[in-house]
Amino acid sequence: METTAAASSGRADWNLRYEVKAVFLLALGYGLVGLDRNIIYPLFPVIAKELGMNYQDLGLISAVLSLCWGLASILTGRLTDRVGCKRVIVPAVIAFSLLVGGSGLAAGMMSMVLLRALMGVAEGAYVPASIVATVEASKPSRIGLNVGLQQMSAPLVGLGLGPLLAVGMLKFVPSWHWIFAIVAVPGFVIAVLLAKSLRADAPAAHAQVRENSSWFEVLRYRNVVSGTLLMLCALSGLVVLSAFLPSYLTDHLHLGMDSMGLVLSALGVGCCVGVVVLPALSDRFGCKRVIVAALACEVVGLWFLTQTGADPVRLFVLLAIVTFLIAGVIGITVGPFANESVPPELGATATGMIVGLGEIIGGAVAPAVTGGIAQHVGIAVIVQIALGSAVLGLLISAFGMRDPKRDFAGRRAEAA
């Protein structure tokens, strides 16, 4: 029965051993993506002092990486559907490992921006291909769970362990340059393991469809459009909170550094748990139901956050709940929702479109616009902006989405 279910879902030759191995290695790869992307932030005070950078330079470095990440996700999603996941994943891991190591050789602002931009291209290529490879390796009843486990590794390693590793290694290596070289090494090991373990599955039955399909064919599917809009809202809210909460907590609520650090740790806790739990629930209750319920609860949580004063414990609980819900919605949207809303031969294209546009707007444009608004009206506005994005996302999901499993099954029945 498991083999039949897998075959009917477009996942040939499913077996448990391959599922566990593939999901584990793809999760490790995504963890390295999170580490390589975020390790520059705890190192930035040291880097800035040596290279003469400022906060504006840090914002530019972050925006360029996000922009290139988003564009690469869109472009390589289409490429992945043409050539298969493995042919994109392995070169991408090698490339971003080389580039994070090269970041340690940066001698100034321009060289750092160039290296991080190229790294964004490589990491953006990895994301949609790795998600689709996880879906293809999974038993149909575990797609949401496995995508959640894979997605969890980025905040766990990048936001949770990354700062500890960066600060710890600074005590033992001659300079920050060495740290980038050290964190590059695991990527080459993972690339070799992925090259040996991943199946080169580019289903022959879909080759002609992929060849003749238009690049933006996925935008004909209602769920891809609504999923992209939802991703813009969810990622904008998450990035705005992540980027500006330290200033909100210290400048507006006047918390001390220790209390601020305690509250911010809720970001990692909420993201790690939410990105696993909610996609797993979507396997049982359906994507739309879980997304709508999560966004409704998020709106309530953000409203309470706007009403909360300088109480670190309450702030921690509320922020953990809110990020739990946001991360879970993102995990469902880029994983089971995107892949079940289109035919199998367009899965990576749809995922790349949703991830890419979300990263461009949410990762690059949203924090820049929010920074300008906060500069004029005050830092307290950031929670209200996140609340507004959650309300808009709730409306999109409630009135713009269709249940992807039911919708896809209907289209297949009509085609038959």
Automatic annotation (TrEMBL):
<feature type="transmembrane region" description="Helical">
    <location>
        <begin position="379"/>
        <end position="401"/>
    </location>
</feature>
<dbReference type="InterPro" id="IPR011701">
    <property type="entry name" value="MFS"/>
</dbReference>
<feature type="transmembrane region" description="Helical">
    <location>
        <begin position="176"/>
        <end position="195"/>
    </location>
</feature>
<keyword id="KW-0472">Membrane</keyword>
<feature type="transmembrane region" description="Helical">
    <location>
        <begin position="18"/>
        <end position="35"/>
    </location>
</feature>
<feature type="transmembrane region" description="Helical">
    <location>
        <begin position="316"/>
        <end position="338"/>
    </location>
</feature>
<feature type="transmembrane region" description="Helical">
    <location>
        <begin position="290"/>
        <end position="310"/>
    </location>
</feature>
<feature type="transmembrane region" description="Helical">
    <location>
        <begin position="350"/>
        <end position="373"/>
    </location>
</feature>
<keyword id="KW-0812">Transmembrane</keyword>
<dbReference type="Pfam" id="PF07690">
    <property type="entry name" value="MFS_1"/>
</dbReference>
<dbReference type="InterPro" id="IPR036259">
    <property type="entry name" value="MFS_trans_sf"/>
</dbReference>
<feature type="transmembrane region" description="Helical">
    <location>
        <begin position="229"/>
        <end position="249"/>
    </location>
</feature>
<keyword id="KW-1133">Transmembrane helix</keyword>
<feature type="domain" description="Major facilitator superfamily (MFS) profile">
    <location>
        <begin position="22"/>
        <end position="405"/>
    </location>
</feature>
<feature type="transmembrane region" description="Helical">
    <location>
        <begin position="261"/>
        <end position="281"/>
    </location>
</feature>
<dbReference type="InterPro" id="IPR020846">
    <property type="entry name" value="MFS_dom"/>
</dbReference>
<feature type="transmembrane region" description="Helical">
    <location>
        <begin position="88"/>
        <end position="107"/>
    </location>
</feature>
<protein>
    <submittedName>
        <fullName>Sugar phosphate permease</fullName>
    </submittedName>
</protein>
<feature type="transmembrane region" description="Helical">
    <location>
        <begin position="55"/>
        <end position="76"/>
    </location>
</feature>
